[in-house]
TrEMBL record:
Pfam families: LytTR, Response_reg
InterPro entries on file: CheY-like_superfamily, LytR-like, LytTR_DNA-bd_dom, Sig_transdc_resp-reg_receiver
Ranges where the Response regulatory domain occurs: 2-116
SMART domains cross-referenced by the UniProt entry: LytTR, REC
Keyword DNA-binding applies: yes
Organism: Hominibacterium faecale
Record-given protein name: Stage 0 sporulation protein A homolog
Function according to Swiss-Prot or TrEMBL: May play the central regulatory role in sporulation. It may be an element of the effector pathway responsible for the activation of sporulation genes in response to nutritional stress. Spo0A may act in concert with spo0H (a sigma factor) to control the expression of some genes that are critical to the sporulation process.
Length: 233
Protein backbone atom coordinates (compact mmCIF):
# COMPACT_ATOMS: atom_id res chain seq x y z
CA UNK A 1 0.00 0.00 0.00
CA UNK A 2 0.95 3.63 -0.47
CA UNK A 3 0.54 5.41 2.86
CA UNK A 4 0.61 9.14 3.59
CA UNK A 5 1.63 10.06 7.15
CA UNK A 6 0.88 13.63 8.23
CA UNK A 7 2.51 14.11 11.62
CA UNK A 8 4.57 17.07 12.88
CA UNK A 9 6.20 15.17 15.76
CA UNK A 10 9.38 13.56 14.46
CA UNK A 11 9.48 10.90 17.19
CA UNK A 12 5.90 9.82 16.51
CA UNK A 13 6.59 9.74 12.78
CA UNK A 14 9.59 7.45 13.22
CA UNK A 15 7.52 5.15 15.43
CA UNK A 16 4.73 4.89 12.86
CA UNK A 17 7.15 4.19 10.01
CA UNK A 18 8.92 1.53 12.06
CA UNK A 19 5.65 -0.22 12.90
CA UNK A 20 4.44 -0.08 9.29
CA UNK A 21 7.63 -1.80 8.14
CA UNK A 22 9.14 -2.24 4.70
CA UNK A 23 6.20 -3.95 2.99
CA UNK A 24 4.50 -0.61 2.39
CA UNK A 25 5.71 2.72 1.03
CA UNK A 26 5.29 5.81 3.21
CA UNK A 27 5.23 9.47 2.15
CA UNK A 28 5.91 11.75 5.11
CA UNK A 29 4.34 15.16 5.67
CA UNK A 30 4.77 17.54 8.57
CA UNK A 31 2.15 19.89 7.15
CA UNK A 32 -1.42 19.25 6.06
CA UNK A 33 -1.07 22.13 3.64
CA UNK A 34 1.75 20.35 1.80
CA UNK A 35 -0.24 17.11 1.56
CA UNK A 36 -3.23 18.92 0.05
CA UNK A 37 -0.92 20.80 -2.33
CA UNK A 38 0.55 17.51 -3.60
CA UNK A 39 -2.94 16.08 -4.05
CA UNK A 40 -4.07 19.14 -5.99
CA UNK A 41 -1.01 19.90 -8.10
CA UNK A 42 0.51 16.41 -8.51
CA UNK A 43 -2.76 14.45 -8.34
CA UNK A 44 -1.22 12.21 -5.66
CA UNK A 45 -3.54 9.68 -4.07
CA UNK A 46 -2.77 7.17 -1.32
CA UNK A 47 -4.32 3.91 -0.21
CA UNK A 48 -4.24 4.99 3.44
CA UNK A 49 -3.90 8.38 5.18
CA UNK A 50 -2.59 8.51 8.77
CA UNK A 51 -3.36 11.94 10.17
CA UNK A 52 -2.41 13.52 13.46
CA UNK A 53 -5.30 15.68 14.70
CA UNK A 54 -3.17 18.29 16.47
CA UNK A 55 -0.97 19.82 13.77
CA UNK A 56 0.92 23.06 14.30
CA UNK A 57 -0.10 24.58 10.99
CA UNK A 58 -3.59 25.86 10.28
CA UNK A 59 -4.54 22.58 8.62
CA UNK A 60 -5.61 20.58 11.70
CA UNK A 61 -6.40 16.90 11.26
CA UNK A 62 -10.18 17.30 11.19
CA UNK A 63 -10.11 19.98 8.52
CA UNK A 64 -7.41 18.09 6.63
CA UNK A 65 -9.52 14.93 6.56
CA UNK A 66 -12.43 16.91 5.13
CA UNK A 67 -10.24 18.31 2.36
CA UNK A 68 -8.87 14.85 1.56
CA UNK A 69 -12.39 13.40 1.46
CA UNK A 70 -13.51 16.12 -0.98
CA UNK A 71 -10.77 15.08 -3.42
CA UNK A 72 -10.66 11.34 -2.74
CA UNK A 73 -14.08 10.13 -1.63
CA UNK A 74 -12.87 6.54 -1.24
CA UNK A 75 -9.88 7.48 0.94
CA UNK A 76 -9.14 5.25 3.91
CA UNK A 77 -8.41 7.81 6.64
CA UNK A 78 -7.11 6.99 10.11
CA UNK A 79 -6.75 9.59 12.87
CA UNK A 80 -3.78 9.18 15.19
CA UNK A 81 -4.22 11.30 18.30
CA UNK A 82 -3.47 11.68 21.98
CA UNK A 83 -7.16 12.43 22.55
CA UNK A 84 -10.39 10.53 21.95
CA UNK A 85 -12.45 13.74 21.91
CA UNK A 86 -13.00 13.69 18.15
CA UNK A 87 -14.92 10.45 17.57
CA UNK A 88 -18.03 12.38 16.53
CA UNK A 89 -16.14 14.28 13.84
CA UNK A 90 -14.41 11.07 12.77
CA UNK A 91 -17.79 9.41 12.35
CA UNK A 92 -19.12 12.29 10.25
CA UNK A 93 -16.07 12.03 7.97
CA UNK A 94 -16.37 8.24 7.59
CA UNK A 95 -12.94 7.81 9.13
CA UNK A 96 -11.74 4.23 8.69
CA UNK A 97 -10.09 3.90 12.11
CA UNK A 98 -9.07 6.01 15.11
CA UNK A 99 -5.83 5.18 16.96
CA UNK A 100 -4.79 6.62 20.32
CA UNK A 101 -1.12 7.43 20.98
CA UNK A 102 1.09 5.76 21.85
CA UNK A 103 0.10 3.38 19.05
CA UNK A 104 0.91 -0.26 19.78
CA UNK A 105 2.21 -2.68 17.17
CA UNK A 106 -0.90 -4.86 17.36
CA UNK A 107 -3.08 -1.82 16.65
CA UNK A 108 -1.02 -0.94 13.59
CA UNK A 109 -1.06 -4.55 12.37
CA UNK A 110 -4.83 -4.67 12.66
CA UNK A 111 -5.19 -1.35 10.83
CA UNK A 112 -2.99 -2.52 7.94
CA UNK A 113 -4.80 -5.85 7.72
CA UNK A 114 -8.20 -4.15 7.61
CA UNK A 115 -7.04 -1.64 5.01
CA UNK A 116 -5.52 -4.30 2.75
CA UNK A 117 -8.62 -6.42 3.08
CA UNK A 118 -10.94 -3.55 2.20
CA UNK A 119 -8.87 -2.60 -0.85
CA UNK A 120 -8.69 -6.21 -2.01
CA UNK A 121 -12.38 -6.84 -1.44
CA UNK A 122 -13.58 -3.77 -3.29
CA UNK A 123 -11.08 -3.25 -6.09
CA UNK A 124 -12.58 -3.71 -9.52
CA UNK A 125 -15.85 -5.21 -8.27
CA UNK A 126 -19.25 -3.74 -8.95
CA UNK A 127 -22.99 -4.28 -8.66
CA UNK A 128 -24.43 -4.54 -12.16
CA UNK A 129 -28.04 -3.69 -13.00
CA UNK A 130 -30.07 -2.32 -15.89
CA UNK A 131 -30.95 1.36 -15.93
CA UNK A 132 -32.85 3.07 -18.76
CA UNK A 133 -32.38 -0.06 -20.82
CA UNK A 134 -28.59 -0.11 -20.44
CA UNK A 135 -26.20 -1.89 -18.06
CA UNK A 136 -25.02 0.24 -15.14
CA UNK A 137 -22.34 -0.51 -12.56
CA UNK A 138 -21.73 0.77 -9.02
CA UNK A 139 -18.37 -0.23 -7.47
CA UNK A 140 -18.77 -2.25 -4.29
CA UNK A 141 -16.84 0.27 -2.22
CA UNK A 142 -19.30 3.06 -3.08
CA UNK A 143 -22.46 1.19 -2.17
CA UNK A 144 -24.02 1.53 1.30
CA UNK A 145 -27.12 -0.59 0.85
CA UNK A 146 -29.78 -1.84 -1.54
CA UNK A 147 -33.44 -1.45 -0.58
CA UNK A 148 -36.60 -2.93 -2.04
CA UNK A 149 -39.25 -0.35 -2.88
CA UNK A 150 -42.28 -2.16 -4.25
CA UNK A 151 -41.28 -3.47 -7.67
CA UNK A 152 -38.12 -1.37 -7.74
CA UNK A 153 -34.69 -1.48 -6.10
CA UNK A 154 -32.97 1.57 -4.60
CA UNK A 155 -29.15 1.68 -4.57
CA UNK A 156 -27.80 4.16 -1.99
CA UNK A 157 -24.15 5.28 -2.26
CA UNK A 158 -21.71 6.78 0.24
CA UNK A 159 -21.65 10.13 -1.56
CA UNK A 160 -25.42 10.47 -1.09
CA UNK A 161 -26.34 9.58 -4.66
CA UNK A 162 -29.22 7.19 -5.33
CA UNK A 163 -30.09 4.98 -8.28
CA UNK A 164 -33.12 2.87 -8.99
CA UNK A 165 -33.96 -0.05 -11.23
CA UNK A 166 -36.62 -2.67 -11.62
CA UNK A 167 -36.02 -6.03 -10.01
CA UNK A 168 -36.34 -8.16 -6.91
CA UNK A 169 -34.06 -8.15 -3.90
CA UNK A 170 -33.81 -11.95 -3.98
CA UNK A 171 -32.42 -11.84 -7.50
CA UNK A 172 -29.80 -9.15 -6.85
CA UNK A 173 -28.75 -10.89 -3.63
CA UNK A 174 -27.73 -13.99 -5.59
CA UNK A 175 -25.34 -11.91 -7.71
CA UNK A 176 -23.58 -10.22 -4.76
CA UNK A 177 -20.53 -11.41 -2.85
CA UNK A 178 -21.94 -12.87 0.41
CA UNK A 179 -18.64 -12.08 2.13
CA UNK A 180 -19.34 -8.36 1.67
CA UNK A 181 -23.10 -7.98 1.52
CA UNK A 182 -25.61 -9.16 4.13
CA UNK A 183 -29.37 -9.28 4.00
CA UNK A 184 -30.49 -7.91 7.36
CA UNK A 185 -34.16 -7.42 6.55
CA UNK A 186 -36.74 -8.50 4.00
CA UNK A 187 -36.25 -5.12 2.29
CA UNK A 188 -32.55 -4.36 2.85
CA UNK A 189 -29.10 -5.65 1.90
CA UNK A 190 -26.14 -3.78 3.43
CA UNK A 191 -22.47 -3.57 2.54
CA UNK A 192 -20.95 -4.76 5.83
CA UNK A 193 -17.70 -2.90 5.17
CA UNK A 194 -19.61 0.38 4.94
CA UNK A 195 -21.59 -0.11 8.17
CA UNK A 196 -20.60 2.59 10.66
CA UNK A 197 -22.16 1.10 13.77
CA UNK A 198 -24.65 -1.46 15.08
CA UNK A 199 -27.10 -0.36 17.76
CA UNK A 200 -29.67 -2.86 19.07
CA UNK A 201 -31.75 -3.76 16.01
CA UNK A 202 -30.35 -1.28 13.48
CA UNK A 203 -27.26 -0.74 11.37
CA UNK A 204 -26.02 2.83 10.91
CA UNK A 205 -24.92 3.38 7.32
CA UNK A 206 -23.94 6.84 6.15
CA UNK A 207 -26.07 8.46 8.84
CA UNK A 208 -29.14 6.35 8.01
CA UNK A 209 -30.78 3.69 10.17
CA UNK A 210 -31.21 0.33 8.46
CA UNK A 211 -33.52 -2.07 10.32
CA UNK A 212 -32.41 -5.56 11.31
CA UNK A 213 -35.32 -7.97 11.56
CA UNK A 214 -35.44 -10.59 14.31
CA UNK A 215 -34.63 -13.66 12.15
CA UNK A 216 -31.38 -12.00 10.99
CA UNK A 217 -30.34 -10.43 14.30
CA UNK A 218 -27.92 -13.05 15.66
CA UNK A 219 -26.17 -13.46 12.33
CA UNK A 220 -26.05 -9.67 11.94
CA UNK A 221 -24.12 -9.37 15.23
CA UNK A 222 -21.67 -12.03 14.11
CA UNK A 223 -21.17 -10.47 10.69
CA UNK A 224 -20.66 -6.99 12.14
CA UNK A 225 -18.09 -8.26 14.63
CA UNK A 226 -16.29 -10.19 11.91
CA UNK A 227 -16.10 -7.09 9.70
CA UNK A 228 -14.51 -5.15 12.56
CA UNK A 229 -12.19 -7.65 14.14
CA UNK A 230 -11.56 -10.63 11.88
CA UNK A 231 -7.94 -11.59 11.20
CA UNK A 232 -7.24 -11.77 7.50
CA UNK A 233 -4.98 -14.21 5.66
Amino acid sequence: MRIAICEDNEKDTRRLVQMIGVDHSCELYTSGEKLILDMEELSLRFDLYLLDIFLEDDENGIHLAGNIRSMDEEALICFVSTSDDFYRQAYDLYVFQYLIKPVEQQDMDRLLQRAEHQIKKNKGRAVIFERYGKPYAIPYQKLLYIASRGHNLLYKCKDGSEYSSGGKLNEIAEALDPGIFFRCHQSFIVNMYNVDDMQQNIFLCGGEEIPISRPYYQQAKERYRRALFEEFD
